[in-house]
């Protein structure tokens, strides 16, 4: 009998998807994509890029700039910067580009009257939805609704999607306590909420996990636990954080230790849920299928299923934050599809943004607020982003890009494992992870300084790659990333590891 961690590593649902999958080339969608990177300047960014960043700095903080791109000249998986350097982009705007730059089919959509009129007559969707809204959503976003979730609230970004799920959770929790949607609010509740006092402003909480990231607005930031620089100086809600397992890699060599670590974390998680009931009850639990900004932290499918079941046992709503993992990045359209959730065990909310371009919350009908204007704002999303998402979903399905990403990731994993066994990688690379999760791969360098040096040298060699956590390098390529891109990526990593050896 295989342990649950070992079974998780096999990822059999993904492997079944690969059977009969059509071979795909990014040139099918982006015929003018460059064939390989091309770096003209000694370092990236070069002088023009540095000057452009300084100019932006006259009116806006430029200290987070990586490069200043020329998007008009960028195509497919390749990003061109101000100096004309052509970079293979395996970071994709922090995992936010699904298909690539200047995809002809999407440019054609933008030229249509439908798209132009939706852009120029942007409605206040909550009060004045366009007559086409049902058609646009039912033929687009609702075609990829997670299992069991047939309701959708569109929002502006990932942070606002999570904030909306928090609000829905709090309202549904209190509605349940009150006795149902038809029980009216008391005068005391209505009066006290205007003073931010109980019972109208109840002392409820959202439980998140250490190293998790859920956004930078006030509620989402209170649930974010990845880096202190995100949170310092900002008032926060007094919400609990549960430990997330620190697994050892390779998984198949540390089965017993990892099972014990997951068990320890589940016990601590349930203890927090129980103890909070007497002080600040947990109305909702939020979790990423892979803790991305915190360092690409993984756990077994069974661990996540137990999280869901324990939350349900203690009356907490369960939010799956798929802002970064969703839309095919992990080899299934939604990463939580791998968890083996049975009927009735589905999440209460699934949030999305990034690769979808549109943002929002899928949820169950019973978590719809009991009165209008409770989850409401002026824009509530954007019709042109719903149209863009619809077209991208169509392209993803027509080209089997989720299966393509799963297959590409498995092949890339094999290449990485071989490369990381070489002498140039020894003492520098450790904890390779993500096999079976599409191209959602990551590895650690042995120090934060070495990681930063690695990322910089990769950019100078024509690869735009990103970091996360303290010393992790993460891959976040487009769904059109394929075999030729993988070969360039692996050979460049090999070259950079040699350069680090020389240093």
Q: Are there runs of 5+ residues with pLDDT below 50, and where? A: 1-21
What general outline do the C-alpha atoms trace?
A: globular
- Characterize the largest beta sheet: strand count, sense, and whether it forms a barrel: 7 strands, mixed
**Strands in their spatial order, largest beta sheet:** 3-9-8-7-6-4-5
CATH homologous superfamily grouping of the largest domain: Type I PLP-dependent aspartate aminotransferase-like (Major domain)
Radius of gyration: 23 Å
Question: Number of helix segments?
Answer: 17
Could you report the average pLDDT, rounded to the nearest whole number? 94
Q: What structural category do the secondary elements indicate?
A: alpha/beta
Total tally of structural domains: 2
User: Whole-Å distance between the termini?
Assistant: 47 Å
As a percent range, the share of strand residues is 5-15%
CATH topology heading of the largest domain: Aspartate Aminotransferase, domain 2
Question: Would you state the CATH class of the largest domain?
Answer: Alpha Beta
Overall number of strands? 14
Helicity range: 25-40%
CATH-defined architecture of the largest domain: 3-Layer(aba) Sandwich
